[in-house]
Specification:
- This protein has 357 residues and is α/β, with parallel strands linked by helices.
- It has helices at residues 6-16, 30-38, 46-57, 74-77, 87-93, 124-133, 156-175, 194-214, 241-255, 272-282, 298-308, 315-333, and strands spanning 22-26, 67-72, 97-101, 106-108, 116-118, 138-145, 179-186, 223-224, 262-265, 291-296.
- Helix 10 (272-282) links the parallel strand 9 and strand 10 (291-296).
- Helix 8 (194-214) runs parallel beside helix 9 (241-255) and helix 11 runs antiparallel to helix 12.
- The longest helix is centred in the middle third of the chain and has 21 residues, at 194-214.
- The two termini are 31 Å apart.
Length: 357
């Protein structure tokens, strides 16, 4: 890979997952953030979305010790604080790297049992150039796969199609100066065991890294955002944090080259505390050549939104909650998280069936 941005890509990837740092995924689409607002009886309009993103982006008090990057939705990339400063300028001042969601959502793959492919490659190079010019330095593209062993899902067609599309996206990003976050999410939906999840995740990641190699991706300037290896939500046997840590790290050891800078896990509907504890369980294990960190949306924000309630009087209280969750996950990235009191919001299930982002 001969991108003129190679050195910058490597430096950016390293900085995002530096010791104790991870990513806040605040790139929810307008519909998705609307579903979150509905829970607090808040109207989904541009000003409320801006105010909520200001709550997150305007958090100081050392949040940049825990957060190395924030993924934004395109609308948010151009929004401003109440005092007129661009969100992007505030993030740059805090030395928090700016990311951008670039995919256009999923569409069904004809001839499959509801499996999907992600769209958005058309015009992607031009969009990446535009995003780079306004300060973005990394991007995210989400592929979605599902486990249904009775129906042979994920099918080989689904795996191959999504691996190829992720690799094409990654190549276009790197050519235009953006670190690609490669996200092959295997949904929690189903009754599969943690062992079956490990088997499927291994197969998917092997295909993804073969495609990345075929497309000459600079792994040192890229990040992987996979699911943790967990049991399906309908499985009667719930895996422990220790099992999830063991199976996830083993799966990565078998499939992910050590050249890759970092792995930033999605929370995938786990509770806030589960997502933190499971990340910690990985980081106490040996033989991890990559940074194992977080790129959490729901697991960093659920308690924040429920504390805020759309009321400006609650902003500082909500920011304290955000700081707490960020610090807990920072400790987990270092393998130093020792647990916390289980509050209502932090232990609430964040699972959404057939999750659309």
């Amino acid at each position: 890979m001969n991108s003129k941005y190679a050195d910058e890509l490597i430096a950016t990837a390293k900085a995002i997952v530096a010791p104790g740092k991870g990513i806040l995924a605040a790139d929810e689409s307008t519909n998705t953030i609307g579903a979150r607002f509905k829970k607090i009886n808040l109207e989904n309009n541009e000003e409320n979305r801006r105010a909520y993103r200001e709550l997150l982006i305007g958090t100081g008090n050392g949040v940049n010790e825990f957060i190395g990057g924030i993924i934004l939705y395109e609308e948010t990339l151009y929004q401003k604080m109440a005092d007129g400063r661009l969100f992007t300028d505030v993030l740059r001042e805090q030395k928090i790297h700016i990311g951008i969601k670039v995919d256009k959502g999923v569409v069904p793959i004809p001839g499959t049992d509801g499996e999907t492919s992600t769209q958005g490659l058309d015009g992607l190079a031009e969009r990446c150039k535009k995003y780079y010019e306004v300060g973005a330095r990394f991007a995210k593209w989400r592929a979605v796969l599902k486990i249904d062993l009775a129906k042979n899902c994920p099918s080989q067609l689904s795996i191959t199609e999504n691996a190829h599309t992720l690799a094409r996206y990654a190549a276009i990003c790197q050519e235009n100066g953006l670190v690609p976050i490669v996200e092959p999410e295997i949904l929690m939906d189903g009754n599969h065991t943690v062992e079956q999840s490990a088997e499927v995740t291994e197969k998917v990641l092997a295909a993804v890294f073969k495609a990345l190699n075929d497309h000459h991706i600079l792994l040192e300037g890229a990040l992987l955002k996979p699911n943790m290896v967990v049991n399906g939500t309908d499985c009667p046997t719930k895996a422990t944090s220790e099992q999830i840590g063991k199976f996830t790290v083993r799966t990565l050891q078998r499939t992910v080259p050590p050249a890759l800078t970092g792995v930033v896990f999605l929370s995938g509907g786990q509770t806030e505390i589960e997502a933190t504890a499971n990340l910690n369980a990985m980081n106490v294990l040996p033989n991890r050549p990559w940074a194992l960190s977080f790129s959490y949306g729901r697991a960093l924000q659920a308690s924040v939104i429920s504390t805020w309630k759309g009321d400006s009087a609650n902003v500082e209280a909500a920011r304290k909650v955000y700081l707490h969750r960020a610090k807990c996950n920072s400790l987990a990235q270092l393998g130093k998280y020792t647990g916390e009191e289980s509050t209502g919001s932090a232990s609430e299930s964040l699972y959404v069936k057939d999750y659309k982002y």
